[in-house]
Amino acid sequence: MCGIIGIASNKSVSSNIINSLKKLEYRGYDSAGLATLKNNVINEKKCSGRVEQLEKILFKTPAEGSLGIGHVRWATHGIPNEINAHPHSTEVVSVVHNGIIENSSDLKRSLENKGKKFKSQTDTEVITLLLAEELKNKKPLEAVQDTLVKLKGSFALGIIFKNFNNIIIGARRGSPLAVGYSKNENYIGSDSYALKSMTNKISYLEDGDVCILTKDSVEFYDSNKKKINKKVLILSEDKNIAQKGDYKNFMSKEIFEQPITAKNCINEYIDKSRDEINFYNFPLNPKTVNKVVLIGCGTAYHSCLVAKYWFEEFTSLSVETDIASEFRYRSIKFSKDCLYLFVSQSGETADTSAALDLCKKNKVKTCSIVNVVESSIARNADWVLPIHAGPEIGVASTKAFLGQMLLLYMLSIKLADLRNEIDKKEYQTKISDLKKLPNLLEKCLKSEEKIQFVAKDFLNSKGSMFLGRGFSFPIALEGALKLKELSYLHAEGYPAGEMKHGPLALIEDGLPVIVVAPNDKYFHKTLSNMQEVIARGGKILLITNNNDSVISENVRFTINLPSIEKSLSPFLSTIPLQLLAYHVALLKKCDIDKPRNLAKSVTVE
Ligand code: AGP
Questions:
Q1: Using alpha carbons only, what angle is made at residue 457 by residues 575 and 298, rounded to the nearest 5 degrees?
Q2: Is 368 helix (H, G, I), strand (E, B) or coil?
Q3: Which residues, including other chains, have CB under 8 Å from residue 555's CB and lie 6 or more apart?
Q4: Hey, which of 368, 602, 605 would you mutate to test ligand 1's pocket, going by the most ligand atoms within 8 Å of its Cβ?
Q5: What is the rounded (10 degree) CA torsion for 556, 558, 559, 560?
Q6: How many angstroms separate the alpha carbon of residue 395 from the centre of ligand 1?
Q7: Which residues contact 420 (CB under 8 A, 6 or more apart)?
Q8: CATH number of the domain at 244-435, out of 3.30.360.10, 3.30.2130.10, 1.10.10.10, 3.40.50.10490?
Q9: Catalytic residue at 600?
């Protein structure tokens, strides 16, 4: 993961580097650092912990210079401490890196054989030492280009050079890197979000590209060392600049803004006057496509799992779901009549991106469902459906999950309509039902008070289980994932019908078991499974919109949700589960927006 920034300017850069690093902290936050250059001296400052910590260090000992690079780290090689924090510098060069150098052990060994000494445990330091060697008899650009050919793996790099006071070099293979342009100032950054407060003019490096920038110029070279030109994109005004407002943290803001997220997404795609979904430019003929494959990671993968039920219910398409990190290494039989759908909030997830590249190599049609429209995954797919959720800052994905499900739901019914597999009237009823969603989500958020009360049950329990059937099975998986990542408590999501095949052995007196049982065709089956859990001592939190009071007997707590068209229940059941994870984490005083060991954008495989 990690975030990098570089600024070449005519004025001091350290405070703008710090501001950009704060925006990049979603990519990693276990250590931070920067290096500036003044009078041919590299000033390096770094620390373990957050950018705030680095800011305090700079307050005491400022880093002067009108040229500099900065980094936030998500550790891959070596523990998060000051030595392993980036930049990694020698006398002559300083490097920040996002990615993994896969042949770092071999390179390290051969450098050590030549008498080179390493200070850190990182893979990045091999780049610094290789560069220092090359710089003995080469100019910076050539030294970088000749170093890059020795590296295996993925990287985005920012590099400054002691003896070249005015240049920063950036390079990309696998990990994203953007270039920003302004008057008397140019930038490199891991994403456009980090650069947005300084410029709206952006270009993106492609794999193999190198850029060299001064405060007044930017040049690009491809992997063959050929000088190339880049398109300059003008970024749209961000009406939705992420601010916490009165909320304690971003996650609670993002949970509570889901009714608006749903409204925006619906407004974007639904023509309310005709009850019609506006999706144009399908990359394949909707009538002849015969299969969809849905691919993502983590929460995005869970949205794919929910969508499988929708596509299967409304269309005759065959549907597969895949975890991107598995998909990319399997022997897939690609089909031209299949649509490969990639779901990713950030649009930068390395595994999802690699799975998309694999599809492109096999010349099949791809669609991406993303939140960040300028992202690599959005740019590389044949067709893009943005979810329009606005920036999601909390590492735990909430409103983006809702947006992903919404897009996938709309796509499933739209395809059913275009393929004449759904009655026109039913199609339009479904659209009318969708329009009610924002209000119903608002009602679900009122469950917070009850959830706060039950959250205490989780504090001293060994773990918990989340159960559901049909659409509610992936929702149970998502509930368990949210609890794990936020509160560091063990939780398992399971299809309720599978309990008797093993996991029932885990049930003991007082174990919290969350049962997601909306009023759908699985309802009674799920309830029977719930009784089997109760009989063995499980303490049930039931989430349902079947408001028959009899079902609550022997249940510790019931969260009653509003009624909704059956296939839309996943949208509502998700809300109390997000609130539950949030409140357990709050009671445990966990860092809600930045859970330990995680990062928002997972740009390593
Ligand atoms: C969700 O809460 C997680 N932090 C994580 O599983 C995330 O959904 C996953 O890493 C995929 O990210 P993406 O949507 O940006 O591709």
A1: 40
A2: strand
A3: 530, 534, 540, 541, 542
A4: 602
A5: -170
A6: 8
A7: none
A8: 3.40.50.10490
A9: yes
Specify the DSSP element, H or E, that contains 566: none
pLDDT digits (tens, 9 = 90+) for 82-139: 999 999 999 999 999 999 999 999 999 999 999 999 999 999 999 999 999 999 999 9
* pLDDT tens-place string over residues 473-511: 999 999 999 999 999 999 999 999 999 999 999 999 999
Helix, strand, coil share (%) of the chain residues, nearest 5: 40, 25, 40
Strands (E), 362-429: 365-370, 383-386
Q: Whose CA is nearest to atom 5 of ligand 1?
A: 298
Q: 501: CA distance to ligand 1 center in Å?
A: 29
Q: Choosing from 2, 47, 211, 359, which is the catalytic residue?
A: 2
Q: Give dist(CA 542, CA 30) in Å, integer.
A: 37
Please tell me if the domain spanning 244-435 has the same topology as the one spanning 446-592. Answer: yes
Ligand 1 centroid to residue 176 C-alpha, Å: 17
Which atom of ligand 1 is found nearest the CA of 482? Answer: 2
Q: What is the DSSP letter of 484?
A: H
Domain boundaries, the chain: 2-234, 244-435, 446-592
Task: Quote the pLDDT of residue 273.
Answer: 78
Residue 384 bridge partners (DSSP):
368
Helix (H, G, I), strand (E, B) or coil at 211: strand
> What distance in angstroms lies between residue 300's CA and the mean position of ligand 1's atoms?
6
**What whole-number distance in Å separates Cα of residue 231 and Cα of residue 595?**
37
Hey, what's the torsion of the CAs at 367, 370, 375, 378, to 10 degrees? Answer: 10
Catalytic residue chosen out of the listed positions 23, 45, 196, 600: 600
Residue 154 contacts by C-beta under 8 Å, 6 or more apart in sequence?
Answer: 99, 100, 173, 174, 175, 350, 603, 604, 605
Closest to 144 in 3D by CA, of 171, 175, 178, 114: 171
CB 221 within 8 A of CB 209: yes
> Distance (Å, rounded) from C-alpha 174 to C-alpha 172?
6
The residue type found at 170 is G
Residue 550 predicted with pLDDT over 70: no
Residue 488 falls in which region: left (phi positive, over 0), alpha (psi -120 to 50) or beta = left
Beta strands in 434-538 (DSSP E): 464-468, 491-495, 512-516
Q: What is the pLDDT of residue 547?
A: 77
DSSP letter at 174 equals B
The fold adopted by the segment(s) 446-592 is: Rossmann fold (3.40.50)
Q: How far apart are CA 581 and CA 160, in angstroms?
A: 43
> What pLDDT, in 10s, does the model give residues 360-409?
999 999 999 999 988 889 989 999 999 999 989 999 999 999 999 999 99
Binding-site residues, ligand 1, Cβ < 6 A = 297-300, 344-346, 349, 352, 395-397, 485, 601-602
**In this structure, which residue's CA is closest to atom 6 in ligand 1?**
298
Per-chain mean pLDDT for the chain: 94
pLDDT of residue 585: 97
Confidence tier at 237 by pLDDT (50, 70, 90): low
* CATH of span 2-234: 3.60.20.10
Residue 318: helix, strand or coil by DSSP? strand
- Spatial neighbors of 87 by CB under 8 A, at least 6 apart, are 33, 34, 35, 44, 46, 69, 71, 94, 95, 96
